[in-house]
Batch of 2 targets.
Target 1
Amino acid sequence: MENIERTVTTQAGPLFQQVEAFCEDVFLRKAPPLPDKAKDLLVAAIPFLTILSLIVTAFSVVLWPLLALLGVLATFLSALTLSGSGVAGSLIGIAESLVSLLLGIVILYYLATSLSGLFNRRLSGWYKLFRADVLSVVSMLLSLGFGILRTIFSAQGVSSVFSIGALLMGGAFSALIMALIFYFSFQIREKYL
């Protein structure tokens, strides 16, 4: 498992550094600070929220392979019916499932290895949670892209426009939630040694 961390660090290290610098600027220098009591409450709650996130992520990591298998079945059935848009949509769904599975495993690793540091208030635990959060944003953006592609290739006319609109609204909501997570995360970073 340490090979995963080493590989991610060498491949995505600059991404983590850029996101951290951006978040420091936005969430520490420009955003209003949280009161110390709120920070202490968050520091106490974060390990338990991470456990909850770990459970949800583990569930999704188990669910993605099942969806990929259903995608393979749908691709086979679409090919039998000569439905080109069905094949394209199914292939995009399989690709999304595989990418989400791989990212989910790495996110799961970072969440699991962050727990000890979060309970002991070590900065190493905070950094692992930060990396899981960054990878969650990457996963969300890729899922949004795959969803838009799947909708475009399904070519269902007006319903495609509404589907893309719904995807974009969901993406905007997810971005807002992730911005709040990063805000809280950077506000409490000082509490970790």
Target 2
Amino acid sequence: MKILQLSKFYPPAHGGIEAVARDLSRGFVRHGLDVEVLCAHTRLRHVDERDALGVRIVRAPSFGLVLSTSAAPTLPWVARRHAHVADIVHVHMPDPLAALAVWTARPRARVVVHWHSDVVRQRLSMALYRPLQDWLLRRADAIIATSTAYADSSLPLQAWRSKVEVIPLGAPAPVPPSDRAVAATRERYGGRRIVFALGRMTYYKGYEVLIEAARALTPDVVVVVGGGGDRLRHYQALAHDQGVGEKVRFVGPMSAARVEAHFAAAEVFCMASTLRAEAFGMSVVEAMARGLPVVTTDIEGSGIGWANQHGVTGLKVPPRDPQQLAAALQRLLADDTLRQRCGAAARARWEAHFAAETMADTTVALYQRLLGLPALPGLGGDPAAVADAGAAPLSAEPDSAAARPTPGPTPGTVPSPIPATLPTLAHTDTTD
């Protein structure tokens, strides 16, 4: 089976969608599929290469970004050549250029649209883009939504609900850092207890709320926020102006090794996002994979609250409420038993529903159905069943037996033509 993924960019470029495309490629290779990725380059240069896994990556030259879209004019024409030999064309959205590429190519292949998010904040350009988006959704043979919450709340998807499959995003297994790296991280912050946050410096992340909440945390706590973006200096200045510059540390872009060391040194992970533009919150699932309890906002229509179960894997608070955010963080920090129980449940929930291998396995099962092929051995799972598991009741008390998730099978055990252990790729998702 030949798969063509269309992605805005691809690692080593940073980004949540880019990380998903990479993790899907790894899973597809594990199942013996022939994988190509077509994306824009970050520079005016054409590249055609294969990575360590054998994935062919074609990067079309780009003049940069225009209205958050790559100005890579040759990409649709390159897509015509590649799409006609594919069995599946997998399109990561939102990306107007990728939609245009499919419209230009008119592939005979099955088309799968991976709906990561609605288009937000681009209302003027959306008037021009909507006909193309509607055409792509109409052409799609299947549409992947990343959570039931987002599928239910996305206006563009409502007319095509019969084609929507819910496949949660998945995070790869963590690579434990060295004891020395973890100790050095703790020492860097004076031995204080670490609340870790990770994400792109952008308007919907709620960092101004986190700064305000930090004022109420005890003196032995430091909030460390990793990630780059055009608002990094703004948040650094805001923390300084509010007198918490030493208590809330915006440390900028982080290497994969530094991310792992901070995850290991932290006691709680926090995502304070305020808007539905935070469609899923991949860094929350990454924290769960590492056994960290999480504090997140409960945004209507977003997948964040869908992944984090209140009182089970962590705590949820209303958006834009620094008092409740501080109280939730302080509650987990003050209660060792609750913190450890939530961390263990978070790890079990990741294993059962949010591992990268599970995401890839369920996607391959979808491909098999679209092509009328028999399911591969070990590919179990109806995406709807995964969605039901992800939408488990959120009202259970933390000490309720029904609230504790049942650990799932160890990720990566699906029979495959090549070994399940693949070369480790650098973690680049610091911009979720």
